[in-house]
UniProtKB/TrEMBL annotation, chains A, B:
Name of the protein this chain belongs to: Arginine biosynthesis bifunctional protein ArgJ
Subcellular location: Cytoplasm
Catalytic activity: L-glutamate + acetyl-CoA = N-acetyl-L-glutamate + CoA + H(+); N(2)-acetyl-L-ornithine + L-glutamate = N-acetyl-L-glutamate + L-ornithine
Source organism of the structure: Phaeodactylibacter luteus
CC terms in the record's Gene Ontology section: cytoplasm
NCBIfam families: ArgJ, PRK05388.1
Gene this protein is translated from: argJ
Amino acid sequence: MIRNLTTVRGIKCWGAHIGIKSMRRDLAIIHSEVPASAACTFTRNRVVAEPIKVSREHIRDGKAQVIICNAGNANACTGDQGRKGAEAMAQAAAEKLGIAKEDVLVASTGLIGEPFPTEDVVRGIKENMDKISGDAKAGSFAANAILTTDTFAKEGFMDFELDGKAINIAGIAKGSGMIHPNMGTMLGFIVSDVAIEPALLDKAVKACVDLSFNMITVDGDTSTNDMVAVLCNGLAGNTTIASEKDKGYKLFRQKLEDMMIHLAKLIISDGEGASKFVEYEVAGAPSDKTARQLVRAISDSTLVKAAMFGRDPNWGRIICAAGNAGVPFDYTHVDLFLGDNEKMVQVLDKGQPVAFDRNRVKRLLRESNLRVKLDMNEGEGQGRGWGADLTTDYVMFNSVYTT
Amino acid sequence: MIRNLTTVRGIKCWGAHIGIKSMRRDLAIIHSEVPASAACTFTRNRVVAEPIKVSREHIRDGKAQVIICNAGNANACTGDQGRKGAEAMAQAAAEKLGIAKEDVLVASTGLIGEPFPTEDVVRGIKENMDKISGDAKAGSFAANAILTTDTFAKEGFMDFELDGKAINIAGIAKGSGMIHPNMGTMLGFIVSDVAIEPALLDKAVKACVDLSFNMITVDGDTSTNDMVAVLCNGLAGNTTIASEKDKGYKLFRQKLEDMMIHLAKLIISDGEGASKFVEYEVAGAPSDKTARQLVRAISDSTLVKAAMFGRDPNWGRIICAAGNAGVPFDYTHVDLFLGDNEKMVQVLDKGQPVAFDRNRVKRLLRESNLRVKLDMNEGEGQGRGWGADLTTDYVMFNSVYTT
């Protein structure tokens, strides 16, 4: 049995081809039969796509019932015309469903700066809303309809028990595409049937995004359209989680984090032109925050990424990138390990190079799943993140495929 | 007549091969016959090479008489052994010249984390100090002896008149090399015979570095060894510049800025694997500082750099990179122009795409010298910077050339 978005109680989906893209599905609908607690995170880019502006307003009351996403046109840098288009998307869905437009979240991904095809999208919404279904197939259609240059759909499902009830949680995501002028938008839509207060869900979502989607990097740019939305409709029937002290909160938060990390890793695995998946870990930091800053600085360094492509046990670049992270960093305390999931080899011991078999490490680095672990030996803070390597294919994708 | 470092009154140089590198010159000496006003800027990386630590101490009094630089070994991440090596460099030069070791500035560039070859470097200094010469040839030898993977030596010379005296200013620089484990160290050494107070020189140097060396990017990483040093020995005989209000200050500061920008541009022209030289300009910003932040964010964006390689008039990536600069940015006010030194084509007008002949712009972008100009239309602030494109060759250089 396939389990995905539609396994979650009360969730119906659809993914349609409405003609914004030439061939592939380009309109996704995720619907909850009852209003759900909802929380979002949005791009930190100062240039914000129109649907993000609309969804920011609609999420204010912590409630939503449907997510509508189109692919093929980002509705970014489109001005007033685009704003009206994003509002029309929400309006069309709300009218069709007989709900308030504030209960509709909208998202877009695709070309920047092209006029938004409002008429096509509105017609697409109206024509497809009746098709929403609880079939697993419909969940996969939605997962496919949010893709741009992704090479595969990204889905996840898990369940756990709370108050003797089975709680379902499922999500879809997209990332990957950097081909002009798509800006590598990252989208994540997660649904659960857990019952949780909106304010608490918001807290959990923000914390989990910081540990997952915010810890992956393909090329360091944040798109105008990035958005993560989580709907929890309460149909599992657990006692509503209403406090951080509730035993269910910690459990749900952990599952949400696991789901987001799963989706984030899938995004990295599908990074454009990427040949390697690298997990970066920093331990022994003065704080978790410092550890995460170091992870981001290292995983986003062009030179480190190129070294990963070249299977080069190049600790100098890692130390140099860490020194550029903008946090106090004393390399003379640092232990550094390189390897894969099976085996890690220490290359630095308290800042001193360790004699290691360079050819053995280079063989290790041939694996497509690599690990880099840096221990600052200064405190209890830790962080993890994930990145791709920088390949000649990446450059070709992002340059030769011109407009 | 060749004019370079040694044209400056009282400056003698040498560049020797002392065996740290296999073939090329690897020890540079720049000497002033009288103590000079001196000022430096150093890397902002938290991991700092040993010679940087020594030079930081020696520059405190605002005086120096000689710069000693070796190539081939960065003396970074070398701990106590390296610190002693950097001190021995200064000590050896001071003894040979009969001056205080505090009047010696030391610098290194090359491999990180390798034990520093103190004995070879000290012997090299002792054997070559007597060879310093005022010949133009000796100036070029010094320019060559600081290179690593650079493909050409970077030199500049200019003169101007002040108080009826001809003032000379000359400089050398290195950049470029990102090949493991060299961290792309940027060095700039400038000498002048102008008379200027040390505190004022320090002010001028910091301001000019912010407008030149700090506005270039190949891959965004700051090396452990970056250093710019300026010596002004006063032998031109002008009235010593002692106040920002002196007419000579503004003039000298402008010439120093011109020299640093000249050297910075040469570094970019020699960027590893780079096929294009791009000048980025931001105008109409709320402040110069904001303009420079935007220039840096745009010129350092992996996606923008790949688009330049691909000759892609991809304004979406430029706007997105600007939105990630961490400064308030309203794209709806922005005018954007792409082109080369001859011709600029407007692609955005107050955030709206301008109909332009895409093929004509793509032809423009085939030039190896490109220009990108963004006008925020919000104030008087402006900034300029320079960058290379991201090429498949860059990735190959930095990955396949493994340890």
